[in-house]
Each structure stands twice: as structure tokens, then as C-alpha cells.
Design goal:
The complex is a heterodimer of chains A (202) and B (280). Chain A is built from eight helices and eleven strands. Chain A is α/β, with parallel strands linked by helices. In chain A, a hairpin with a 4-residue loop joins strand 2 and strand 3. In chain B, a hairpin with an 8-residue loop joins strand 9 and strand 10. In chain B, helix 6 runs antiparallel to helix 7. Chain B is globular. Classes of the chains: A alpha/beta (202), B alpha+beta (280). Chains A and B meet through strand 5 and helix 7 of A and helix 6 of B.
């Protein structure tokens, strides 16, 4: 029996559809308000958790496998293995601001973001010094009220950015959902892990 | 509550005494590793370890120190420069290493041993077999050879190392040229015993240890990259049911001692696991 951490919300719904379509599960799991579902037919237990908590469940071994965005993998640099790009939940990690003037190379920048490690590492690679203002939400507001020069965030269509008068100034990376696993489970449950991965790869 | 605490301490002491006796019988000397090490010494041995993870101390002598992030560096810094050509260092220790994490201080209590001088890897694997048979319950050993994969990558960058640590084929595909990617892909995809893999992968670097690896029933995973840069030769991790991370790791680190014309091999075992599973 393997335990799988599924993110709540849209990505979770897409994941459960994918698991059913690829015959990992024999029925389409619909969690409703239940946070834990045992699917005996597929020999899997599902835990429904906040997307940013999936990595915590997997690294702590409470879940053997999990589905998480590559943005969170990049940000946490957790000791996990990434098994597969599921090609769902696609978006981009970007730098955005009011205009290009706010994004001059070699000038010190103030950056608001939920992804402080990703932002730090990106600007370090540009040899640019930055002050990071960590925010948990409504990041788009920061340049409008002069809290920061730019933001680092994920965007799918760019609509929220546009509605707040922000432009994409740079792309940091493409983001998509990944199948990840606990390193110990990878070796201790290799057979089940291989089967799970193979079915999803088909 | 109090009695329980005292019992725990007594149990821990008994486990450590048994280990000390075992290692003493095998020619090892027990040492107390230094608690701090010079930041420059650690960084020069481990250039890819993020400084954010180190606990740095600025002392009044003007130097920057780190609370030991690993014990091997601490031991080598203190003993290696003193060793003459034919000297042999065989030490064991019980100590903790320290890291910075999102939640604050993270400690890793461990029992370990290091051999520096003339090192016979086959003998070291026999020693590991003897430890696992005599002292610990069933463990899965995963074996790699880091320089085998890293030498196939023309220009190693932190991002490529990160992708290798994740075993992320998606990320590696975007960061490596096609030829390099195709060259290392089989090593990322295939894991198994020596026997399972010998017809599919180039296992030349592991061939001299085939007998011992089979005795250990080791799983070969040549894509594993260790957390510390100095492990360049044979590298081993041990996994056990009920533990979410390796309970044992170590291997050959001649790269760190090569300038002194010495070979080196060391292993570190989780003390938490030993206290729970030890067959005294």
C-alpha cells in the first residue's frame, strides 16, 4: 500500500482525472470534504492537502508519493526525487513590474514574492543585488503601492497581472505539476513505485 | 517521567558502549570531533553546499566559523595535516552535525567511523556487512559512484547538480546537450542489483566490488549524488522500513585527501535509528 499526497483545488482535480484515465485508479476519486480516502482496489491511500504542504508530507515520509508544482520543488529544494513531469498545471515563473524602467540590470531592486529562494537565486545568477519582501498573497499589489520595484510570481494567462497594470519583464522558468516521491520509499517500495510511474508515463 | 528519561540515557549509553567495543576490537580509536570548523575550510571542501544551510559564527579572532555541518570535514581538518606518509587514521565517534532549516536548528545525532591512509574498499564493504549483520536489522543498501556520472557532464553547474539530486530527467533535458543527456539517461532510469544491471549498464567502476555488493544485496543506483562534494568514489546509503531518509551514508572521499596522498573512507549511522533498532 502506498500513500499519495494530492493537492487540494484545481490541480488536485486534474490529478485525480489523470490517475483514473491512466488506470492508476479504477474509479474516479472524488474527495468532497474527506481529507483521507483509502482506495483498496488500487492499493493506494490518498491524502488531500494544501498544495504547498505536499512536499512536507512526502519528505516526512507520511506520504510515499505526491503531486506538486515544479515552482514549489524549486523553492523548497527538499530532499525528494522527481519521477515525472505530468504536463498539467502548466504556468510560468516570471518577473513583473509596472514598466521596463523598474527592471534595470545592475541596479539594486526591491522584490516582493512568495518565492523568496527562487527570486534570490535568479537575481544572484544576474549578479543583481535585491531586497526580498516576502508576501503570502496579493503579490500584484506590491509595485502599485511602491512596496517593491518588481514581483516574482507564477502566472498562467497573465490576466491578473494585466488587470493590475503589470507587465511581464522576464521569464524565470516554465512550471508544471510533477510526480515526486520520498527517497526512502523510492528504494523500499521500488516495485509499486515503478508500476505507478509506468502507468502515468503511458 | 523522570525514571523514563534516566532509562533512555542508560539505553543510549549501552548502545554507544557496545559500538565503541565493536570498533575498538576492529582497531579504531574513539575521538571527540571539534564542534566548530573554519568556514573557509568547509566551503573549500564542499563548494556546492548552500551557505544558507550553515550555522555561522563570527568570533573575536576575526575568523568566521561554522557549527560543524558534517563531521568528516571537522576530523580531517584536525588530523590530516599532522599525518606522515605511512600513518593510518582509524577513528570512530558519536557526535551531532548541525544545519540551518526553515524551522530553525536541525541536529543530526550520529555514530560514525573514518579510515584515512591506505584504504581497501573491499575490506570496508566487508566491515559494513559485518556491522549490518551483527548490529542492525534488515537494511537496503543503495550504491553509487558519483564521479562516474559527474565526469560525463562537461560543465557541471549548480542547477545541473540540483537536477541530478532530484533525479529530474525533465530538468536535466533542458540543461544538458542531447548527447550528454542520452549518455546519462540509462543510469537515471535503471536501478537494481549488480546481476540485474551488468548486461545493461557500464558497471566497470563497481566491478572490483561485485562480490561484496552482492553479499550486501546492494541496489545499484549510479545516479545518486551525495550531499557533500568530497564523496567521489564508491558511495553508500542505507534505508530501513519506517525511516523517511537514509539511516546510514558514507563512502570513499579520496578527492578530499588526495593532496596528502591518502585514501579515505567513512560512514555515518543515524543514532536515532541505532537507539531504536540496535540488537544489543
Amino acid at each position: 500500500m502506498m500513500t499519495c499526497a494530492i493537492p487540494t483545488g484545481r490541480l488536485g482535480k486534474q490529478t485525480l482525472e489523470l490517475l483514473f484515465n491512466q488506470r492508476v485508479t479504477t474509479t474516479l476519486i472524488e474527495p468532497g470534504r474527506q481529507l483521507q480516502i483509502e482506495d483498496e482496489a488500487s492499493n493506494l491511500t490518498f491524502l488531500f492537502v494544501k498544495p504547498s504542504d505536499v512536499i512536507t508530507y512526502v519528505t516526512s515520509g507520511l506520504a510515499d508519493i505526491g503531486i506538486v508544482g515544479s515552482d514549489i520543488i524549486e523553492e523548497t529544494k527538499a530532499d525528494i526525487y522527481e519521477l515525472l513531469d505530468l504536463k498539467i498545471g502548466t504556468c510560468q515563473m516570471i518577473v513583473a513590474g509596472l514598466n521596463e524602467k523598474a527592471y534595470v540590470e545592475n541596479e539594486h531592486l526591491v522584490v516582493s514574492t512568495k518565492f523568496k529562494n527562487t527570486a534570490k537565486s535568479f537575481f544572484k545568477s544576474r549578479n543583481q543585488t535585491v531586497d526580498i519582501k516576502p508576501l503570502n498573497g496579493s503579490v500584484e499589489l506590491a509595485p502599485l503601492i511602491a512596496l517593491s520595484d518588481v514581483i516574482v510570481d507564477i502566472t498562467e494567462t497573465g490576466t491578473t497581472l494585466k488587470e493590475n497594470g503589470l507587465k511581464i519583464l522576464d521569464k524565470i522558468s516554465d512550471v508544471s505539476a510533477r510526480l515526486i516521491c520520498n527517497q526512502a520509499s523510492f528504494y523500499l517500495k521500488k516495485k509499486e513505485m515503478d508500476t505507478f510511474k509506468e502507468r502515468l508515463s503511458q | 517521567m523522570f525514571q523514563e528519561k534516566i532509562k533512555q540515557i542508560q539505553d543510549k549509553n549501552q548502545v554507544i558502549e557496545t559500538l565503541n567495543t565493536f570498533f575498538k576490537g576492529n582497531g579504531f580509536t574513539r575521538i571527540e570531533p571539534e564542534l566548530i570548523t573554519r568556514t573557509t575550510a568547509f566551503i573549500s571542501s564542499n563548494p556546492s553546499v548552500s551557505e544558507d544551510k550553515l550555522i555561522q559564527l563570527q568570533l573575536r579572532d576575526g575568523y568566521s566559523y561554522v557549527l560543524r555541518p558534517d563531521i568528516t570535514t571537522s576530523i580531517l581538518e584536525n588530523y590530516l595535516p599532522l599525518m606522515n606518509d605511512h600513518d593510518q587514521l582509524q577513528v570512530c565517534y558519536q557526535a551531532s552535525s548541525y544545519r540551518q532549516s526553515e524551522a530553525g536548528l536541525k541536529t543530526f545525532p550520529q555514530y560514525g567511523y573514518e579510515v584515512v591512509g591506505q584504504v581497501n574498499i573491499q575490506e570496508q564493504l566487508n566491515m559494513l556487512l559485518s556491522i549490518s549483520k551483527k548490529l542492525i536489522k534488515e537494511m537496503i543498501f543503495v550504491v553509487s559512484y558519483p564521479s562516474f556520472i559527474t565526469s560525463r557532464i562537461p560543465k557541471m553547474t549548480p542547477k545541473i547538480k540540483e537536477a541530478l539530486s532530484l533525479q529530474s530527467t525533465t530538468s536535466l533535458k533542458t540543461r544538458l546537450d542531447n548527447k550528454t543527456y542520452e549518455d546519462i539517461l540509462p543510469y537515471l532510469n535503471q536501478k537494481g542489483t549488480f546481476e540485474d544491471l551488468q548486461d545493461q549498464l557500464d558497471l566497470t567502476v563497481l566491478k572490483p566490488y561485485e562480490k561484496q555488493l552482492n553479499q550486501l544485496n546492494a541496489m545499484i543506483d549510479l545516479s545518486v549524488i551525495p550531499p557533500y562534494d568530497y564523496y567521489s568514489g564508491l558511495y553508500i546509503q542505507g534505508y530501513m522500513k519506517g525511516y523517511h531518509s537514509p539511516v546510514l551514508f558514507g563512502g570513499a572521499y579520496d578527492g578530499r585527501t588526495g593532496q596528502y596522498q591518502k585514501q579515505a573512507f567513512g560512514v555515518s549511522i543515524s543514532l536515532e535509528m541505532l537507539l531504536k533498532e540496535f540488537n544489543i
